[in-house]
Write a structure and sequence with these properties.
- By secondary structure, the chain is an alpha+beta fold.
- The chain has one domain: Metallo-beta-lactamase, Chain A, CATH 3.60.15.10.
- The strands form 4 sheets. Strands 1-5-6-7-10-11 form a 6-stranded mixed sheet. It has a 6-stranded mixed sheet with strand order 12-13-14-15-16-17, with no helix packed on it.
């Protein structure tokens, strides 16, 4: 399997739930509002023998040339966005699902960013996101899921075509899910916002921003203990995009 991080940059986020770009060479974290978190926004592509798999879709912003940033990141890595076959979404917070659709600014509508891909979402997560709305979710962006032809709504735990396992984990958000991609004796694990950074895997860290911080902490400890030999993908780590746990 080939793993490609698709970093959209480093940001700070505070209680307003706004993601503000942060340049580590120019900006000072202490100048941001108290309690601001410093995070990377980093979807991943995993290329297997059968699939081009996208794990979460980033913030969904356009670059200075007007192109969807996640499309540009794929193109920069010699991947045509039309070649993506599966989009696996851990949850639908705006920094993870913002790139699921592209906005037509004239019509104020969204269309699917990866039209040849099947999108895999927990059914209850989609229902929850639509009901909950702002600021963590963007209702306008979620409209793309209503008429998505290749949407696959998952219910609990299971597998996709025998090579991808998923589990309803429910730590960071009530219906958050995690994925294992398995091929030729290798396992790639994506824990979304329940395994977002390497340092959190190695400590009893409880985050105030999690739906169930104790559960998320316990899951991290469980996965780290079980996951020797797995390659962990860290969506929000500014230093370590992924690591094979030995």
């Amino acid at each position: 399997m080939k793993i490609i991080p698709l970093s959209e940059g480093t940001f700070t986020i505070d209680q307003t739930k706004r993601f503000i770009p942060f340049d580590t060479e120019k900006h000072v974290l202490s100048n941001r509002p108290s309690g601001s978190l410093l995070v990377e926004i980093q979807p991943f592509v995993v290329i297997t023998e059968q699939d081009v798999i996208l794990l979460d879709t980033g913030l969904g912003f356009n670059n200075k040339d007007g192109n969807l940033q996640i499309h540009q990141n794929l193109i920069d890595n010699d991947i045509n966005p039309l070649d993506v076959t599966k989009v696996l979404l851990s949850h639908l917070h705006k920094d993870h699902a913002g790139g699921a659709g592209i906005e037509n600014q004239l019509q104020h509508q969204y269309h699917v960013s990866f039209p040849n891909a099947s999108y895999y979402v927990q059914k209850k997560e989609l229902e929850y996101a639509i009901e909950k709305g702002a600021p963590s979710f963007v209702p306008a962006e979620l409209e793309v899921f209503r008429n998505m032809e290749k949407l696959v709504l998952l219910d609990g735990d299971g597998d996709i075509e025998g090579s991808i396992r998923y589990a309803l984990s429910g730590g960071h958000s009530p219906f958050h899910q995690v994925f294992w991609i398995e091929e030729a004796g290798e396992t790639v694990f994506f824990g979304g916002d329940e395994a977002p950074q390497l340092h959190q895997m190695k400590s009893r860290f409880i985050a105030k921003y999690d739906h169930d911080g104790k559960r998320a902490m316990e899951l991290r400890q469980k996965w780290w203990q079980e996951g020797k030999g797995w390659t962990f993908l860290f969506y929000h780590d500014i230093k370590t995009p992924y690591l094979k746990h030995s």
